[in-house]
Amino acid sequence: MQQSLSGKAKTRPLTPANVTVGRRRWSERGYALLFLGPSLALLAVFIFWPMLKTLYMSFFLTDKFGHITVFNGLGNYRSLLQDASYWASLGATLSYVAVVAVLTIVLGLILAVAAQQQLKGIGFFKTLFSSTMGISVSVAAIFWLFAFNPSVGVFAQLSQALHLPEINWLADPHFALLAIIITTVWMNLGFTFLILFGALQQVPRSLYDAADVAGVAKRTQFLKVTLPMISPTLFFVTTVTLIDAFKSFGLIDLMTAGGPSNATNLLVYRVYQDAFLNGSYAQASTESVVLTLLIAVVTLVQFKLFGKRVTY
Amino acid sequence: MTPIQPVVAHENKRRFKLIGRYTLLVGLGLIVIGPFILGLWTSLLPTAAISKGALWGKLSFDNYVTAITTTPILRYLLNSFVIAMVTTISQLLFCSMSAYAFVFLKFKYQRPLFALFLVTMMLPFEAEVIPNFATVRALGLLNHYAVMIVPFLTTAFGTFMLRQNFLQMPKELKEAADVEGLSHWQFYWRMTLPYAKISLLTLAAYSFLSSWNQYLWPMLTTFSDQFRPVQDGLRQLQGQETFNNWGMIQASAAIVVIPTLIVLLIGQHYFKAGLNEGAVK
């Protein structure tokens, strides 16, 4: 308590008034500890320490209980780079991430533009378009597992009715990743729509009025006025979508479990398999470090783009 | 040619355009909620009909009754609710406190510490599950509510978002508070929090949904229905012999989705305003 009294209070005569002030007024440092301490401690235990530990473990070999045995230098990284199945996972992850981002942004933008129309009942459609935001991963997986089901699903029934070749979506290595992509994009739509819709609303009407007066076609207006005006938001949504896609786990676990023939064995799923199913903790740690680097790069790009906004 | 005709033609064209616009909206709407509608509809059909591929049958709530009476789905919901509520409240408290420290307090290493918070936002929790699993096992938290709450009591993202909002508070408010002799705690509690109401609501909706949607971590750390949250619970139901009981699975999914849709409908407005403000303004 003595340390938290302000220095001035000590040199003054101890009148009752000064004492109460002294009691109430903590030093800035005391307050900093009080306000920042809990968060800092929690982040240290559950984010910083695990990150360092993961990095550390990636340079060692481990036994099946996850205990460190021998120093292996960059050996884990070397064997990871020589592992063809890891490259396949990385390739699948990158194509998944890229396709998800493109489709999410394009479809989200279409929905956001459609919802800009001044029509009766537009609020109802806005609610519809943002509704997938409230749908969690296991619920989405159930809906789409049913839709992709080879005997009772809508896709199977549609292709039957139209005499198209039937695709066993989740069991076919050529289509399983696409099925996961479709489901992911669908889940992303609500959030993306909401953010892009907000951005479109903030484009000043006067810009469009001026373009109308100048006789600029609607399509040109979209390309030359709308897109540049909402580009910060577009970049924001893109990076958020990319980061989320890199972390995808739930849908894969629920819909394909990494199969068929590793076609959907994306990076996070691989970490989980190697650590918690195969007991290869060192290898899983090495993969975690690579995953972190990939996500860190995207995040850095995000910070750079929003640097001025972010730090003032 | 009477002058009436062009007006009629114009009127018709306008009407066609309007119909076209609504058709587009309805089409897009159906694509978005199609899978959801299909799921809801299936949840009302008898499983026997569904497994024959029929999309028609006697509608009833039987599947809901089966789901509620034969599976722990309500318990899963309760578990998720407890976990999400505690996580949300604590994130609101701790994130706003650390945000306050970065905006209104002066202390040593303030800038490096803030940089540390920013760095945290780059580190995915998914890549750190191995040491975290060891930590919670050592702390004896496995298979308990605490294991799904303690690691998420605070977030760097929440701190960052609220900091952005606190920065926008008029300087005069703090000056006036200093003149009045308000302590930092009083200013935080009486002025800052009420000022940031919208941002706090946004963060609350975001925290609640994130916690509710947790999947990997609960799967690794909970082993009994007593504490299992709903995402993991649905996985459990699917994994059991009920796998082909599509009607009941869909009914369980519907039971799970309704609370989040309610949170979303209430929070939608704040979510939009807050995220746009915190993230991109």
From TrEMBL, chain A:
InterPro entries: ABC_transporter_permease (IPR051393), MetI-like (IPR000515), MetI-like_sf (IPR035906)
Pfam families, A to Z: BPD_transp_1 (PF00528)
Subcellular location, record wording: Cell membrane
Membrane disposition: Multi-pass membrane protein
Gene Ontology CC, one term: plasma membrane
Annotated TM spans: 31-52, 86-115, 127-147, 175-200, 221-243, 288-306
Domain called ABC transmembrane type-1: residue spans: 90-302
Source domain of life: Bacteria
Keywords linked to the UniProt accession: Cell membrane, Membrane, Transmembrane, Transmembrane helix, Transport
Main location: membrane
Any one Gene Ontology BP term: transmembrane transport
Family, as annotated: Belongs to the binding-protein-dependent transport system permease family.
Full protein name: ABC transporter permease
Source organism of the structure: Loigolactobacillus bifermentans DSM 20003
Automatic annotation (TrEMBL), chain B:
GO annotation (BP), single: transmembrane transport
PROSITE patterns recorded: ABC_TM1
Residues passing through the membrane, by range: 22-41, 81-105, 112-130, 142-162, 198-217, 246-266
Domain ABC transmembrane type-1: 77-267
Membrane topology: Multi-pass membrane protein
Cellular compartments annotated: Cell membrane
Similarity remark: Belongs to the binding-protein-dependent transport system permease family.
Name under which the protein is recorded: SN-glycerol-3-phosphate ABC superfamily ATP binding cassette transporter, membrane protein
